[in-house]
Structure to design on (664 residues):
């Protein structure tokens, strides 16, 4: 079965483009706004949406996404509501949507039940930042059965044996974490990223996307030269946060996403 | 008794390593280094030396005659971890882990702290070895444990307030994990309890197991028999597993872990994971958690900052399911009454954490025969709590 993720990466390859993966925290400021943002960001050039599920204790996230999660929880957002929201979005858009969520959210619903509901809703992949491949056992079976790709992360600290493990276990794409740190930190040594992505691409059958620290069109331009996809999170979330009460919020964010995509250099 | 945890860091279904990939290599390195250190004569000699000459071990096993008489039942012994340097059992682990950090050539130490005891112990060990130290602490805890904040600063540590979530221990751990994720190449994270990802729960248990090893010898010497009961408070669960571990194979010894009942279970304001929680994953480990139906972590409450935490060490979760250890709770009110009783009857002001164990002794001892023996772990002294207790009673100091 060729899923939306695969189709998208193939389509971009054909056009010699790189994927812009835009992160949104579901329910920040509300789920209605999140749905509007998904549609608007697709029109502005986002190729894939990474939808964060708010969690009370997000250990991999910096302050920007922590605060977004707090706002999401405050607006009453739950995993079930997010899945319903994805389902309703599927009447408007075919953009691939991957969920980024902490393992306890899945565990609380039950791996099997969650994978079934998520696939039925139209979710295209899962990123679970606190679940390395070593702990993925209980989720892998149900995810495979539901045709839901598990996307694992690789870090600058990863050893060659872990690089191999992550590349083998990852489906849809591999998420390369550009820096030793948490989300929203400043993009660091670009040469290191380039070398590590190169090594990763040698052992990975899936496309490689780079995230953490990509904040500006210039960053996106640089990173797009090395990888198949560029993930932008905190920089988008920050703009949503600063325009919370502003009726033009969606437009502001879309404009930023347009500038990111425009900067991304074709192959 | 099977050897736990298994090679994946599992205690039955609990434990594991639920961390961002960035930390995986560091955890694997730590596991490997710890395995080597355990077999290294030099490491063992060093650890034994510092525990004896610096910490003041072995701590005494004190027969609390007046408390025994007052309660009118079982004979009560107190394992005096409050007599350790810095005033609590936390230093046993801090010294062990600082020695490990030195082996790994990591010159910067970070830690989280709730009551401040682990922060003080870590700041102390770091000062003694000339390492840089930063301690994360929830701002709510900084307020109720102001004395320990000042102590850490005196010891040269940087204390960083964490103003997120419940502003207590849980949030301090998250922030320490984020720091470690960012600075993992130069920094060792000294976790303070049997929590987090493998190898922490195993390693910290091993460093604290000396409590039970000593107590077992001491009680055999004093009474010529093993005790009928062991009682200890359970926050993350390091002092309790420390006392219990050496006795796990002794089938006649019953063990009771006492969680924080806060304002009572029905109030929802408590930290009794085994009374109101269910298994899930938080901060690196699968264990019993206080969480809602969507897996969001609940806010907890306890008069004692050191027990005010939504998760419990994974090894405890296994013993809970197996029924090997019984878990109960003491409310804030019961703990406060125990705090007063121990001060007046025995001249020992216990930490509010340890007062939870004493509260259970107060319930248990009168039901037992005079020939029966209870050992309670007095995990820390109460000096740090005096100010808070005064404030609660409206006394201006």
């Amino acid at each position: 079965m060729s899923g939306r993720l695969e189709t998208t990466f193939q389509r971009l390859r054909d056009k010699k483009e790189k994927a812009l993966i835009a992160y949104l925290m579901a329910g920040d400021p509300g789920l209605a706004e999140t749905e509007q943002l998904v549609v608007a960001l697709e029109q502005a050039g986002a190729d894939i949406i990474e939808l964060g599920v708010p969690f009370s204790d997000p250990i991999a996230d910096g302050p920007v996404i922590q605060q977004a999660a707090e706002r999401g929880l405050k607006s009453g957002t739950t995993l079930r509501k997010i899945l319903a929201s994805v389902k309703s979005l599927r009447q408007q858009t075919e953009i691939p949507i991957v969920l980024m969520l902490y393992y306890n959210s899945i565990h609380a619903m039950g791996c099997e039940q969650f994978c079934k509901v998520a696939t039925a809703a139209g979710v295209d992949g899962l990123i679970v930042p606190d679940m390395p491949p070593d702990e993925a056992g209980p989720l892998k079976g149900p995810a495979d059965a539901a045709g839901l790709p598990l996307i694992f992360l690789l870090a600058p600290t990863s050893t060659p044996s872990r690089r191999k493990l992550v590349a083998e276990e990852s489906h849809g794409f591999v998420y390369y974490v550009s820096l030793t740190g948490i989300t929203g930190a400043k993009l660091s040594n670009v040469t290191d990223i380039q070398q590590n992505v190169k090594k990763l691409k040698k052992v990975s059958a899936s496309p490689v996307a780079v995230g953490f620290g990509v904040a500006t069109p210039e960053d996106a331009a640089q990173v797009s030269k090395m990888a198949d996809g560029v993930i932008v999170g905190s920089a988008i979330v920050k703009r949503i946060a600063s325009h919370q009460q502003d009726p033009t919020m969606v437009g502001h964010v879309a404009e930023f996403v347009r500038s990111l995509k425009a900067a991304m250099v074709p192959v | 008794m099977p050897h736990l945890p298994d090679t994946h860091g599992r205690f039955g279904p609990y434990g594991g390593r639920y961390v961002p990939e960035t930390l995986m290599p560091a955890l694997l390195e730590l596991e490997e280094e710890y395995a080597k250190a355990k077999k290294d004569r030099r490491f063992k000699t060093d650890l034994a030396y510092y525990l004896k000459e610096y910490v003041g071990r072995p701590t005494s096993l004190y027969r609390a005659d007046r408390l025994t008489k007052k309660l009118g039942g079982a004979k009560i012994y107190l394992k005096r971890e409050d007599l350790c340097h810095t005033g609590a059992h936390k230093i046993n682990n801090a010294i062990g882990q600082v020695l490990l950090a030195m082996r790994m050539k990591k010159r910067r130490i970070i830690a989280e702290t709730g009551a401040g005891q682990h922060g003080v112990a870590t700041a102390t060990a770091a000062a003694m070895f000339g390492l840089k130290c930063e301690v994360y602490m929830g701002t709510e805890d900084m307020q109720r444990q102001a004395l320990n904040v000042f102590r850490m600063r005196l010891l040269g540590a940087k204390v960083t307030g964490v103003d997120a979530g419940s502003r207590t221990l849980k949030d301090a751990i998250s922030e320490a994990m984020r720091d470690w994720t960012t600075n993992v190449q130069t920094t060792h994270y000294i976790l303070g309890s049997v929590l987090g990802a493998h190898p922490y729960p195993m390693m910290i248990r091993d460093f604290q197991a000396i409590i039970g090893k000593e107590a077992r010898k001491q009680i055999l010497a004093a009474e010529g028999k093993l005790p009928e009961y062991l009682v200890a408070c359970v926050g993350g669960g390091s002092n309790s597993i420390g006392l219990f571990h050496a006795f796990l194979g002794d089938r006649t010894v019953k063990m009771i872990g006492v969680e924080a009942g806060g304002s009572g279970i029905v109030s929802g304001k408590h930290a009794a994971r085994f009374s109101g929680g269910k298994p899930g994953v938080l901060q690196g480990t699968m264990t019993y958690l206080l969480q809602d139906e969507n897996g969001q972590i609940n806010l907890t409450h306890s008069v004692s900052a050191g027990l005010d935490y939504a998760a419990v060490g994974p090894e405890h979760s296994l013993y809970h399911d197996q029924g090997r250890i019984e878990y109960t709770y003491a409310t804030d009110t019961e703990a406060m009454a125990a705090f007063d009783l121990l001060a007046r009857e025995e001249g020992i002001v216990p930490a509010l954490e340890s007062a939870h164990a004493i509260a259970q002794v107060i319930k248990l001892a009168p039901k037992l025969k005079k020939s029966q023996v209870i050992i309670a772990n007095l995990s820390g002294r109460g000096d740090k709590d005096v100010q808070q207790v005064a404030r609660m009673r409206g006394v201006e100091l």
Remarks:
- Chain B has a mean pLDDT of 96.
